[in-house]
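Read as chain and fold; for instance:
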Amino acid sequence: MKKIHLVLVVLLYTFFSANSFAAELSEVKGKITDASTQEPLIGATIYISDLKAVTTTNSLGEFTLKNIPLKGRFLMEVRFVGYKTHSQMVDLATINTLNISMEPSVVESAEVVITGSPFSSNNKTNSLSVVTVGKDKLAQAGGTNLVDAISRIPGVSQVSTGGAISKPTIRGLGYNRVLTMVDGAREEAQQWGDEHGIEVDQFSAARVEILKGPASLLYGSDALGGVINIIDDLVPPPGVFNGDFTTSYGTNNGLSASSLMLQGNDNGFVYRGRVSYKNAYGFGYKNTTVPNSGFNEFNLNGMVGLNKSWGYSHLTFSRFHTNIGLVEDGPNEQGNFVNEDGEVISKAEAQQRRLGLPFQNITHYRTALNSNFILGKGQLKTTFAFQRNMRKEFEESATEPGLNLNLNSYTYDVKYYFPNAGKWEPAIGVQGMYQKNVNKGDEFLIPDYNSNNIGAFFYLKRNFEKGAVNIGARYDYKKINGQDLSVDGEQVFSSFNNKFSNVSGSIGFAYEVAKNLVLKGNAGSGFRAPNIAELAANGRHEGTFRYEIGNSKLKQETSLQFDLGLEYTAKSVTFGLNAYANRIFNYIYPGNFNKETKELTNEAGEIETLPVYRFVQTKADLIGGEASMDFHLVKSLHFENSFAYVRGINRADDAPLPFIPAATINNELRFEPSIKGLGETYIKVGVSNVLKQARFDSFETQTDGYTLLDAGIGTSIKTKNGKLNLWVTGQNLLDKKYYNHLSRYKPAGIYNPGRNVTFGINVPFM
């Protein structure tokens, strides 16, 4: 299988690139102006996502987009701060000069997205609900990791393990039901685990697109709940070399985070390199520091590629490495943390940056080859990726891991976009993945296994003057083989060979029913094969508070979701409303049935009693919605509000589903004054209201509601090299003691982090 994938990569890359390098170069010139004053806009960004082509306007508002095909239809995006984002379809065979007038706006209009459709598209014509978070907002959020930074998007939550680990959930679905995309490829990093977070450098994200709802049509199994698409930086225009340095410090856990990036474009030869480092001691709340909850992280990533008239081909590679301390026990009745001898751990001891036992050591390698070959008026997009995830968990020794999982994943994604005139947009694709997991430690939670899956889809979009409709169908097939294992004559795992297949489909529309008012609807089915832990887990590993037992007889999950949305964007107000109903057949979840427990004896001879969780299936419903309303009655003043709610129902007994986030109401007042010599200045105050979660499964407990106060201030100083960005973000400023319902430390009596103030600076290089 490895050799087959390698041969495919080499053949495709060699054949298409060798026949295309000689293609004649083309370019598009134009001018960007203010629609009312006709003054040139200096520094506007022009970007064609499907070609990875970018440029900016000069002092006259003029631009030249180089190294692009002679023909083909592509969606072009023009962005400039303080103006409505402009997007239009351009036919390179007939257009070589463009004059674009942009309208001033205090609101962010719908922008081009690449998630949820094979084609880059204006979000107004996308039938699925897709939200975009840009790089500046990611930095200003003050999150300890990438998921933490996006967790206040309506409908998005996180399963957290202290400040180091966050797993995304979308509309009540998480784990293997939410797919994470990095460098154009699905991330595979043992994401079935409670304390297994996203393993990607958060500094490398230029923006994050969040697709809410089933996306199995385009992404296959594991996208039943949605997609988190992490998109890297834009390559610079030809002849440009630049970079930046970002650093920040957080007061709650002493988190210092820094990243240096350099990139360039030498007449179509593009390259980028980044190095990042993070270090934190244990997080705290109300004069209490949680010992051994710190972490450190060191990341390297880079890219080399070609942007030519035949398209582009980029090779990305990264090494993500982290050490994460794990908390075994919560505080005693007096609220103090104690060591093995029963002695109180002082705050100074808890704030040591040296990790103690137990801790995780995780290394994740990723390389991906992303290409788009222009074949006449059609396009062939390919992504071939290899990932190696090495997860070690140290319990009794700092040198010999107990659990040691090694997972190799090979993925491929090939899509062909048929020539079109901009009205009918057909595409077909095939995707697949081969995985092999090996246990190299002396503890076992999941067996050695290999899996192979393949999927093929057809997608068709019809564009109209005021909207679009789309339809598609997909077939998936997956097989997974688990190996037998006995230790000291005791059966740990029994072998199994499971096969799953499914046909899924989707139909949707987006239509501008009135000026600035867009109605969206989508009906789609989803599919997810059980993951290896659900099928075969048998054990407990550090970082969990339970013993899990899998079930190799589990069936695949399938879902049917209906989503309806309404979006209104005017000069001084924006409004969004989404409602959805999602029925999942054979929904898989763990339960502590009949209060079953298991006694384990550690190496010290101590007996530990853990609740036993077994994986079972039921029919489930998730019903909910999100609403947002932003007022901009004064140009410099923004009042943003959002609400999200989801209700999970176990149809077997009408009981609540486990791990459902509480309803949230978020409000933020943002003031953006104009100050001479400064740019993009803002002052913001936000209030997050999380309501009581009174609906919970039998093994959960009620979680009280709480209110958090946040604030922030930032600005940019113009320099000859660009702009120097400064910001300060405060979270939970009233130092509220609270539990989030999805916090994995809640059962141990450990509160979520208290007050935190983050100071950040970004320095550009030209």
